[in-house]
Amino acid sequence: MNSIISNKSSNLSGEIIVPGDKSISHRSLIIGSAVTGKITIKNLLESEDVFATANALRQMGVTINKLSNNKWEVFGNGIGSLSGKNNMLDMGNSGTGARLLMGLVAGSDVEATFIGDESLSKRPMKRITLPLIETGAIIENINNDRLPIKIKGSKITLPIEYESSISSAQVKSSILLAGLSSLGSTTIVEPSLSRDHTERMLTYFGAKIETTKLKNSTWKITLDGIPTLIPLDIDVPSDPSSASFPIVSAIITPNSKVKVMNVCINELRIGLYKTLIEMGANIKFNNTRKINGEFIADITAETSKLKGITVPKSRVASMIDEYPILAVAAIKAKGDTIMEGVEELRYKETDRIKAICEGLQKLGIEATNTKDTMVVIGKGSKTKVNGNVQINSNLDHRIAMSFLCLGLISENPIIVEDTDTINSSFPFFLEKMKEIGAKFQQS
Ligand code: S3P
Fold first, then answer.
1. Distance CA 357, CA 368 (A)
2. Which end of the chain is more exposed for a tag (fewer CB within 10 A), N or C?
3. Averaged pLDDT, 288-301
4. Per-residue pLDDT tens for 358-387?
Protein backbone atom coordinates (compact mmCIF):
# COMPACT_ATOMS: atom_id res chain seq x y z
CA MET A 1 0.00 0.00 0.00
CA ASN A 2 1.64 3.22 -1.16
CA SER A 3 1.31 6.61 0.50
CA ILE A 4 2.24 10.11 -0.61
CA ILE A 5 3.30 12.94 1.68
CA SER A 6 2.31 16.46 0.68
CA ASN A 7 4.27 19.36 2.14
CA LYS A 8 3.70 23.10 2.28
CA SER A 9 4.76 24.68 -1.01
CA SER A 10 4.86 28.03 -2.80
CA ASN A 11 5.86 29.45 -6.20
CA LEU A 12 4.25 26.72 -8.28
CA SER A 13 5.09 27.48 -11.88
CA GLY A 14 5.47 26.04 -15.36
CA GLU A 15 3.61 24.58 -18.30
CA ILE A 16 2.45 20.99 -18.10
CA ILE A 17 0.44 18.52 -20.08
CA VAL A 18 -1.87 16.27 -18.11
CA PRO A 19 -2.95 12.87 -19.49
CA GLY A 20 -5.70 12.27 -22.03
CA ASP A 21 -9.34 12.60 -21.05
CA LYS A 22 -10.66 9.51 -19.29
CA SER A 23 -14.21 9.74 -20.66
CA ILE A 24 -13.03 10.23 -24.24
CA SER A 25 -10.39 7.48 -23.91
CA HIS A 26 -12.97 4.88 -22.83
CA ARG A 27 -15.28 5.96 -25.61
CA SER A 28 -12.59 5.88 -28.30
CA LEU A 29 -11.94 2.20 -27.52
CA ILE A 30 -15.59 1.26 -27.08
CA ILE A 31 -17.01 3.15 -30.05
CA GLY A 32 -13.89 2.30 -32.08
CA SER A 33 -14.76 -1.37 -31.60
CA ALA A 34 -18.16 -0.77 -33.23
CA VAL A 35 -16.69 0.85 -36.34
CA THR A 36 -15.94 -1.35 -39.32
CA GLY A 37 -12.23 -0.95 -39.90
CA LYS A 38 -9.15 0.34 -38.13
CA ILE A 39 -8.92 3.54 -36.11
CA THR A 40 -5.81 5.02 -34.54
CA ILE A 41 -6.03 6.83 -31.21
CA LYS A 42 -3.45 9.41 -30.17
CA ASN A 43 -2.94 10.51 -26.55
CA LEU A 44 -5.05 7.69 -25.11
CA LEU A 45 -5.09 7.81 -21.32
CA GLU A 46 -2.91 4.87 -20.31
CA SER A 47 -4.48 4.28 -16.92
CA GLU A 48 -5.83 1.29 -15.03
CA ASP A 49 -9.45 2.20 -15.83
CA VAL A 50 -8.84 2.44 -19.56
CA PHE A 51 -6.76 -0.77 -19.57
CA ALA A 52 -9.71 -2.55 -17.96
CA THR A 53 -11.93 -1.44 -20.86
CA ALA A 54 -9.31 -2.43 -23.47
CA ASN A 55 -8.87 -5.88 -21.90
CA ALA A 56 -12.62 -6.46 -21.70
CA LEU A 57 -13.02 -5.59 -25.39
CA ARG A 58 -10.10 -7.87 -26.31
CA GLN A 59 -11.77 -10.74 -24.46
CA MET A 60 -14.86 -10.17 -26.59
CA GLY A 61 -12.93 -10.44 -29.85
CA VAL A 62 -11.68 -6.92 -30.56
CA THR A 63 -8.05 -6.49 -31.60
CA ILE A 64 -6.48 -3.55 -29.77
CA ASN A 65 -2.75 -2.81 -30.01
CA LYS A 66 -0.48 -0.27 -28.43
CA LEU A 67 1.71 1.23 -31.17
CA SER A 68 3.90 3.60 -29.15
CA ASN A 69 3.48 5.85 -26.11
CA ASN A 70 -0.20 6.71 -25.83
CA LYS A 71 -0.78 5.74 -29.49
CA TRP A 72 -3.13 2.80 -29.99
CA GLU A 73 -5.06 1.11 -32.77
CA VAL A 74 -8.46 -0.57 -32.63
CA PHE A 75 -9.74 -2.94 -35.30
CA GLY A 76 -13.49 -2.50 -35.07
CA ASN A 77 -15.61 -5.42 -36.24
CA GLY A 78 -18.78 -3.34 -36.66
CA ILE A 79 -21.96 -2.78 -34.67
CA GLY A 80 -23.16 -5.79 -32.66
CA SER A 81 -19.94 -7.73 -33.21
CA LEU A 82 -18.75 -8.62 -29.69
CA SER A 83 -18.47 -12.36 -29.17
CA GLY A 84 -18.08 -15.16 -26.63
CA LYS A 85 -20.27 -16.96 -24.11
CA ASN A 86 -18.08 -17.16 -21.02
CA ASN A 87 -16.62 -13.69 -20.76
CA MET A 88 -15.62 -12.67 -17.23
CA LEU A 89 -14.89 -8.96 -17.46
CA ASP A 90 -12.90 -7.48 -14.60
CA MET A 91 -13.59 -3.74 -14.78
CA GLY A 92 -11.36 -2.94 -11.79
CA ASN A 93 -12.27 0.48 -10.37
CA SER A 94 -13.97 1.75 -13.52
CA GLY A 95 -17.65 2.70 -13.35
CA THR A 96 -17.50 4.26 -16.80
CA GLY A 97 -15.91 1.18 -18.40
CA ALA A 98 -18.39 -1.18 -16.74
CA ARG A 99 -21.52 0.82 -17.42
CA LEU A 100 -20.74 1.77 -21.02
CA LEU A 101 -19.64 -1.73 -21.93
CA MET A 102 -22.86 -3.14 -20.50
CA GLY A 103 -24.66 -1.11 -23.17
CA LEU A 104 -22.44 -2.42 -25.96
CA VAL A 105 -22.81 -6.00 -24.68
CA ALA A 106 -26.61 -5.59 -24.70
CA GLY A 107 -26.38 -4.98 -28.45
CA SER A 108 -24.24 -8.00 -29.40
CA ASP A 109 -24.75 -11.73 -29.50
CA VAL A 110 -22.49 -12.18 -26.48
CA GLU A 111 -22.64 -13.17 -22.83
CA ALA A 112 -20.54 -11.45 -20.20
CA THR A 113 -20.28 -11.29 -16.43
CA PHE A 114 -19.03 -7.97 -15.08
CA ILE A 115 -16.96 -7.88 -11.91
CA GLY A 116 -14.93 -5.14 -10.25
CA ASP A 117 -12.83 -4.11 -7.27
CA GLU A 118 -14.16 -3.44 -3.77
CA SER A 119 -15.16 0.14 -4.65
CA LEU A 120 -16.88 -0.68 -7.96
CA SER A 121 -18.65 -3.64 -6.36
CA LYS A 122 -20.44 -1.21 -4.03
CA ARG A 123 -21.76 1.09 -6.77
CA PRO A 124 -25.39 1.02 -7.99
CA MET A 125 -26.01 -0.70 -11.33
CA LYS A 126 -29.81 -0.77 -11.65
CA ARG A 127 -29.62 2.64 -13.29
CA ILE A 128 -28.04 0.74 -16.22
CA THR A 129 -29.64 -2.71 -16.06
CA LEU A 130 -33.23 -1.43 -15.89
CA PRO A 131 -33.08 0.43 -19.22
CA LEU A 132 -30.98 -2.30 -20.83
CA ILE A 133 -33.53 -4.96 -20.01
CA GLU A 134 -36.05 -2.87 -21.97
CA THR A 135 -33.78 -3.11 -25.01
CA GLY A 136 -34.13 -6.91 -24.83
CA ALA A 137 -30.98 -7.81 -22.90
CA ILE A 138 -31.28 -10.77 -20.57
CA ILE A 139 -29.84 -9.89 -17.20
CA GLU A 140 -29.50 -12.52 -14.52
CA ASN A 141 -30.70 -11.59 -11.09
CA ILE A 142 -32.04 -8.22 -12.23
CA ASN A 143 -32.70 -7.17 -8.65
CA ASN A 144 -29.00 -7.23 -7.99
CA ASP A 145 -28.06 -3.57 -7.92
CA ARG A 146 -24.37 -4.42 -7.58
CA LEU A 147 -21.70 -6.37 -9.47
CA PRO A 148 -21.30 -9.17 -10.37
CA ILE A 149 -23.89 -8.83 -13.12
CA LYS A 150 -24.32 -11.21 -16.07
CA ILE A 151 -25.73 -9.87 -19.32
CA LYS A 152 -26.76 -11.78 -22.44
CA GLY A 153 -27.16 -9.38 -25.33
CA SER A 154 -28.70 -9.72 -28.75
CA LYS A 155 -27.53 -8.51 -32.15
CA ILE A 156 -30.74 -6.55 -32.66
CA THR A 157 -32.01 -4.45 -29.73
CA LEU A 158 -35.46 -2.99 -29.26
CA PRO A 159 -35.75 0.76 -29.78
CA ILE A 160 -36.63 2.36 -26.45
CA GLU A 161 -37.62 5.73 -25.09
CA TYR A 162 -36.23 6.01 -21.58
CA GLU A 163 -36.71 8.79 -19.07
CA SER A 164 -33.89 8.89 -16.55
CA SER A 165 -34.46 10.49 -13.15
CA ILE A 166 -30.75 11.38 -12.92
CA SER A 167 -28.43 13.23 -15.29
CA SER A 168 -25.75 10.66 -15.95
CA ALA A 169 -23.53 10.39 -19.00
CA GLN A 170 -22.90 6.77 -18.10
CA VAL A 171 -26.62 5.94 -18.18
CA LYS A 172 -27.16 7.96 -21.35
CA SER A 173 -24.13 6.45 -23.11
CA SER A 174 -24.98 2.90 -22.13
CA ILE A 175 -28.48 3.26 -23.61
CA LEU A 176 -27.15 4.91 -26.78
CA LEU A 177 -24.53 2.18 -27.26
CA ALA A 178 -27.25 -0.48 -26.96
CA GLY A 179 -29.31 1.62 -29.39
CA LEU A 180 -26.61 1.31 -32.06
CA SER A 181 -27.94 -2.22 -32.67
CA SER A 182 -31.56 -1.17 -32.96
CA LEU A 183 -33.61 -1.11 -36.16
CA GLY A 184 -35.45 1.97 -34.87
CA SER A 185 -34.40 5.06 -32.99
CA THR A 186 -33.46 5.16 -29.32
CA THR A 187 -34.36 8.10 -27.09
CA ILE A 188 -33.20 9.06 -23.64
CA VAL A 189 -34.50 12.00 -21.65
CA GLU A 190 -32.37 13.39 -18.83
CA PRO A 191 -33.13 16.21 -16.33
CA SER A 192 -30.11 18.32 -17.33
CA LEU A 193 -27.59 17.66 -20.04
CA SER A 194 -24.70 15.44 -18.92
CA ARG A 195 -21.34 15.26 -20.73
CA ASP A 196 -21.95 14.57 -24.41
CA HIS A 197 -18.72 12.88 -25.54
CA THR A 198 -20.61 9.78 -26.72
CA GLU A 199 -22.91 11.89 -28.88
CA ARG A 200 -19.99 13.91 -30.26
CA MET A 201 -17.89 10.87 -31.07
CA LEU A 202 -20.74 8.92 -32.65
CA THR A 203 -21.59 11.99 -34.74
CA TYR A 204 -17.91 12.31 -35.72
CA PHE A 205 -18.00 8.71 -36.97
CA GLY A 206 -21.18 9.40 -38.97
CA ALA A 207 -24.15 8.53 -36.70
CA LYS A 208 -27.26 10.71 -36.62
CA ILE A 209 -28.07 12.05 -33.16
CA GLU A 210 -30.44 14.84 -32.23
CA THR A 211 -30.35 16.71 -28.90
CA THR A 212 -33.35 18.88 -28.00
CA LYS A 213 -34.31 20.89 -24.95
CA LEU A 214 -37.89 20.12 -24.02
CA LYS A 215 -40.47 22.60 -22.72
CA ASN A 216 -40.02 21.38 -19.14
CA SER A 217 -36.27 22.07 -19.47
CA THR A 218 -35.28 18.41 -19.62
CA TRP A 219 -33.15 17.14 -22.52
CA LYS A 220 -34.03 14.56 -25.15
CA ILE A 221 -31.31 12.72 -27.06
CA THR A 222 -32.29 10.52 -30.01
CA LEU A 223 -30.04 8.18 -31.98
CA ASP A 224 -30.96 6.54 -35.28
CA GLY A 225 -30.12 2.84 -35.04
CA ILE A 226 -27.65 0.85 -37.18
CA PRO A 227 -25.70 3.88 -38.40
CA THR A 228 -22.79 3.54 -40.78
CA LEU A 229 -19.75 4.29 -38.64
CA ILE A 230 -16.77 5.36 -40.71
CA PRO A 231 -13.32 4.58 -39.30
CA LEU A 232 -11.61 7.87 -38.48
CA ASP A 233 -8.66 8.63 -36.21
CA ILE A 234 -9.02 10.23 -32.79
CA ASP A 235 -6.76 12.62 -30.93
CA VAL A 236 -7.75 12.61 -27.25
CA PRO A 237 -7.56 16.05 -25.58
CA SER A 238 -6.18 16.39 -22.04
CA ASP A 239 -8.57 15.75 -19.19
CA PRO A 240 -10.15 18.85 -17.61
CA SER A 241 -10.78 16.82 -14.44
CA SER A 242 -7.08 15.97 -14.15
CA ALA A 243 -6.13 19.57 -15.05
CA SER A 244 -8.19 20.78 -12.10
CA PHE A 245 -5.55 19.56 -9.63
CA PRO A 246 -2.60 21.69 -10.85
CA ILE A 247 -5.01 24.55 -11.60
CA VAL A 248 -6.52 24.68 -8.11
CA SER A 249 -3.07 24.13 -6.59
CA ALA A 250 -1.83 27.26 -8.39
CA ILE A 251 -4.86 29.25 -7.21
CA ILE A 252 -4.44 28.40 -3.52
CA THR A 253 -0.63 28.35 -3.27
CA PRO A 254 1.28 31.64 -2.82
CA ASN A 255 3.11 33.25 -5.79
CA SER A 256 2.04 30.67 -8.30
CA LYS A 257 1.21 30.63 -12.00
CA VAL A 258 0.66 27.40 -13.92
CA LYS A 259 -0.40 26.64 -17.49
CA VAL A 260 -2.00 23.35 -18.50
CA MET A 261 -1.96 22.65 -22.24
CA ASN A 262 -4.51 21.15 -24.69
CA VAL A 263 -7.33 20.72 -22.18
CA CYS A 264 -10.80 19.62 -23.29
CA ILE A 265 -13.12 22.57 -22.61
CA ASN A 266 -16.37 20.92 -23.62
CA GLU A 267 -19.12 23.16 -22.11
CA LEU A 268 -20.45 20.18 -20.19
CA ARG A 269 -17.13 19.60 -18.42
CA ILE A 270 -16.02 23.05 -17.30
CA GLY A 271 -18.42 23.82 -14.47
CA LEU A 272 -15.53 23.92 -11.99
CA TYR A 273 -13.67 26.54 -14.00
CA LYS A 274 -16.79 28.73 -14.24
CA THR A 275 -17.34 28.33 -10.50
CA LEU A 276 -13.75 29.24 -9.65
CA ILE A 277 -13.96 32.34 -11.87
CA GLU A 278 -17.16 33.37 -10.04
CA MET A 279 -15.28 32.87 -6.77
CA GLY A 280 -12.67 35.36 -8.03
CA ALA A 281 -10.01 33.04 -9.45
CA ASN A 282 -7.66 34.34 -12.08
CA ILE A 283 -8.12 31.72 -14.81
CA LYS A 284 -7.67 32.25 -18.54
CA PHE A 285 -8.49 30.04 -21.53
CA ASN A 286 -6.17 30.69 -24.50
CA ASN A 287 -5.65 29.25 -27.96
CA THR A 288 -9.12 27.70 -28.21
CA ARG A 289 -9.39 25.19 -31.07
CA LYS A 290 -11.37 22.10 -32.12
CA ILE A 291 -10.17 18.52 -32.60
CA ASN A 292 -12.40 15.64 -33.69
CA GLY A 293 -15.58 17.26 -32.47
CA GLU A 294 -14.25 18.57 -29.12
CA PHE A 295 -13.07 22.09 -28.16
CA ILE A 296 -9.70 22.42 -26.42
CA ALA A 297 -7.67 25.30 -24.93
CA ASP A 298 -4.62 26.03 -22.81
CA ILE A 299 -5.65 27.02 -19.28
CA THR A 300 -3.61 29.37 -17.10
CA ALA A 301 -4.26 30.01 -13.42
CA GLU A 302 -2.55 32.21 -10.83
CA THR A 303 -2.69 32.62 -7.07
CA SER A 304 -6.04 34.28 -6.37
CA LYS A 305 -8.22 35.63 -3.60
CA LEU A 306 -11.46 33.68 -3.48
CA LYS A 307 -14.90 34.30 -2.03
CA GLY A 308 -17.47 31.69 -1.08
CA ILE A 309 -20.47 31.29 -3.39
CA THR A 310 -23.50 29.08 -3.86
CA VAL A 311 -22.97 26.51 -6.59
CA PRO A 312 -26.45 25.68 -7.94
CA LYS A 313 -27.79 22.23 -8.73
CA SER A 314 -27.96 23.20 -12.41
CA ARG A 315 -24.15 23.10 -12.51
CA VAL A 316 -23.71 19.64 -11.00
CA ALA A 317 -23.61 17.68 -14.27
CA SER A 318 -20.83 19.84 -15.69
CA MET A 319 -18.56 19.44 -12.66
CA ILE A 320 -19.66 16.17 -11.09
CA ASP A 321 -16.08 14.92 -10.61
CA GLU A 322 -14.69 18.24 -9.40
CA TYR A 323 -16.44 18.74 -6.04
CA PRO A 324 -13.57 17.22 -4.02
CA ILE A 325 -11.08 19.71 -5.45
CA LEU A 326 -13.63 22.56 -5.26
CA ALA A 327 -13.96 21.80 -1.54
CA VAL A 328 -10.20 22.30 -1.25
CA ALA A 329 -10.37 25.68 -3.02
CA ALA A 330 -13.35 26.61 -0.82
CA ILE A 331 -11.18 26.38 2.30
CA LYS A 332 -9.21 29.39 1.05
CA ALA A 333 -12.35 31.35 0.11
CA LYS A 334 -13.80 34.01 2.36
CA GLY A 335 -17.21 32.80 3.49
CA ASP A 336 -19.31 29.73 2.87
CA THR A 337 -19.21 27.74 -0.32
CA ILE A 338 -22.55 26.01 -0.60
CA MET A 339 -22.76 23.10 -3.02
CA GLU A 340 -26.37 22.28 -3.83
CA GLY A 341 -27.93 19.14 -5.32
CA VAL A 342 -24.83 16.98 -5.00
CA GLU A 343 -26.38 13.68 -3.85
CA GLU A 344 -24.87 11.80 -6.83
CA LEU A 345 -21.46 12.26 -5.16
CA ARG A 346 -22.55 9.62 -2.68
CA TYR A 347 -22.48 6.98 -5.46
CA LYS A 348 -19.00 7.62 -6.86
CA GLU A 349 -15.84 5.59 -6.16
CA THR A 350 -16.64 6.30 -2.53
CA ASP A 351 -19.31 8.43 -0.84
CA ARG A 352 -17.48 11.64 -1.69
CA ILE A 353 -19.59 13.90 0.51
CA LYS A 354 -18.71 11.78 3.52
CA ALA A 355 -15.04 11.43 2.53
CA ILE A 356 -14.60 15.17 1.93
CA CYS A 357 -16.39 16.31 5.10
CA GLU A 358 -14.71 13.76 7.35
CA GLY A 359 -11.28 14.56 5.90
CA LEU A 360 -11.75 18.31 6.25
CA GLN A 361 -13.10 17.96 9.79
CA LYS A 362 -10.06 15.87 10.71
CA LEU A 363 -8.00 18.86 9.58
CA GLY A 364 -10.01 21.25 11.74
CA ILE A 365 -11.93 22.77 8.84
CA GLU A 366 -15.65 23.36 9.19
CA ALA A 367 -17.61 21.36 6.64
CA THR A 368 -21.20 20.21 6.93
CA ASN A 369 -23.57 18.20 4.78
CA THR A 370 -27.11 17.01 4.30
CA LYS A 371 -28.19 14.21 1.98
CA ASP A 372 -27.65 16.40 -1.09
CA THR A 373 -25.80 19.54 0.06
CA MET A 374 -22.29 20.21 1.19
CA VAL A 375 -21.00 23.41 2.81
CA VAL A 376 -17.36 24.36 3.35
CA ILE A 377 -16.69 27.33 5.59
CA GLY A 378 -13.66 29.23 4.36
CA LYS A 379 -11.68 31.82 6.27
CA GLY A 380 -10.07 33.62 3.34
CA SER A 381 -6.59 34.94 4.12
CA LYS A 382 -6.99 33.80 7.74
CA THR A 383 -7.23 30.15 6.67
CA LYS A 384 -4.87 28.01 8.67
CA VAL A 385 -4.59 24.27 8.12
CA ASN A 386 -2.43 22.51 10.65
CA GLY A 387 -1.95 19.25 8.81
CA ASN A 388 -0.15 16.38 10.51
CA VAL A 389 -2.94 13.99 9.61
CA GLN A 390 -3.34 10.87 7.55
CA ILE A 391 -6.19 10.59 5.08
CA ASN A 392 -7.21 7.31 3.46
CA SER A 393 -8.06 7.44 -0.24
CA ASN A 394 -11.01 5.04 0.19
CA LEU A 395 -9.94 3.69 -3.22
CA ASP A 396 -11.02 7.02 -4.72
CA HIS A 397 -8.44 8.68 -6.96
CA ARG A 398 -10.02 12.15 -6.75
CA ILE A 399 -10.22 12.08 -2.97
CA ALA A 400 -6.53 11.12 -2.87
CA MET A 401 -5.42 13.88 -5.27
CA SER A 402 -7.60 16.55 -3.64
CA PHE A 403 -6.18 16.00 -0.16
CA LEU A 404 -2.66 15.97 -1.57
CA CYS A 405 -3.33 19.41 -3.11
CA LEU A 406 -4.63 20.56 0.27
CA GLY A 407 -1.30 19.54 1.80
CA LEU A 408 0.34 22.30 -0.26
CA ILE A 409 -1.22 24.91 2.05
CA SER A 410 -0.94 22.99 5.33
CA GLU A 411 1.57 24.00 7.99
CA ASN A 412 2.54 20.36 8.53
CA PRO A 413 2.41 17.50 6.04
CA ILE A 414 -0.72 15.65 5.00
CA ILE A 415 -0.16 11.98 4.28
CA VAL A 416 -2.56 10.31 1.89
CA GLU A 417 -2.63 6.53 2.20
CA ASP A 418 -3.48 3.99 -0.46
CA THR A 419 -2.58 6.24 -3.38
CA ASP A 420 -2.21 3.57 -6.09
CA THR A 421 -5.80 4.37 -7.02
CA ILE A 422 -4.55 7.64 -8.56
CA ASN A 423 -3.38 5.51 -11.49
CA SER A 424 -6.98 4.92 -12.46
CA SER A 425 -7.18 8.42 -13.96
CA PHE A 426 -3.89 10.31 -13.58
CA PRO A 427 -0.73 8.24 -14.10
CA PHE A 428 2.42 10.20 -13.17
CA PHE A 429 0.40 12.58 -10.97
CA LEU A 430 3.26 12.77 -8.48
CA GLU A 431 5.84 13.54 -11.18
CA LYS A 432 3.63 16.13 -12.94
CA MET A 433 2.88 17.95 -9.69
CA LYS A 434 6.57 17.90 -8.74
CA GLU A 435 7.33 19.36 -12.18
CA ILE A 436 5.44 22.55 -11.19
CA GLY A 437 7.08 22.66 -7.75
CA ALA A 438 4.66 20.76 -5.49
CA LYS A 439 6.56 19.25 -2.58
CA PHE A 440 5.16 15.75 -2.82
CA GLN A 441 7.11 12.66 -1.89
CA GLN A 442 6.41 8.97 -1.95
CA SER A 443 6.51 7.52 1.55
C1 S3P B 1 -18.45 9.76 -16.76
C2 S3P B 1 -19.62 10.22 -16.24
C3 S3P B 1 -19.76 10.67 -14.84
C4 S3P B 1 -18.42 10.87 -14.17
C5 S3P B 1 -17.44 9.79 -14.48
C6 S3P B 1 -17.21 9.71 -15.98
C7 S3P B 1 -18.44 9.33 -18.17
O8 S3P B 1 -20.50 9.71 -14.13
O9 S3P B 1 -18.59 10.98 -12.78
O10 S3P B 1 -16.20 10.03 -13.85
O11 S3P B 1 -17.34 9.20 -18.75
O12 S3P B 1 -19.51 9.11 -18.73
P13 S3P B 1 -22.11 9.75 -14.12
O14 S3P B 1 -22.55 9.60 -15.51
O15 S3P B 1 -22.55 8.59 -13.28
O16 S3P B 1 -22.46 11.07 -13.51
1. 6
2. N
3. 96
4. 999 999 999 999 999 999 999 999 999 999
Burial 142-178 (b: 16+ CB within 10 A, else e): eeeeebebbbbbbeebbbbebebebbbbbbbbbbbbb
Domain boundary among 180, 206, 235: 235
* CATH code of the domain covering residue 196: 3.65.10.10
In this prediction the pTM is 0.98
Identify which of 319, 329, 323 has the alpha carbon closest to the alpha carbon of residue 373.
323
Give the residue, 144 or 95, on which the prediction is more confident: 95
Pocket residues: Cβ below 6 A from ligand 1: 23, 96, 168-170, 173, 194-195, 320-321, 344
Q: Whose CA is nearest to atom 11 of ligand 1?
A: 23
How far, in Å, CA of 122 to CA of 59, rounded?
24
- Burial class of residue 266 in the structure, from the number of CB atoms within 10 Å of its CB (0-12 exposed, 13-18 middle, 19+ buried): buried
Residues 231 and 297 reside in one and the same domain: no
156 and 263 assigned to the same domain: no
For 350-365, what is each residue's pLDDT tens digit? 999 999 999 999 999 9
Alpha-carbon distance 295 to 263, whole Å? 8
**Could you tell me the residue range of the domain that residue 365 belongs to?**
4-20+237-442
Q: Ligand 1 centroid vs 25 CA: distance in angstroms?
A: 13
| Pairwise CA distance, residues 270 & 419, whole Å | 26
d(CA 22, CA 230): 23
Give the residue, out of 26, 96, 201, with the most ligand 1 atoms within 8 A of its beta carbon, to mutate for a pocket test. 96
CA of 168 to the centre of ligand 1 (A): 6
Domain stop point among 194, 218, 235: 235
Instruction: Give, in degrees to the nearest 5, the angle at Cα 167 between 366 and 20.
Output: 80
CB atoms near residue 420 (< 10 Å): 15
What type of residue is 158?
Answer: L
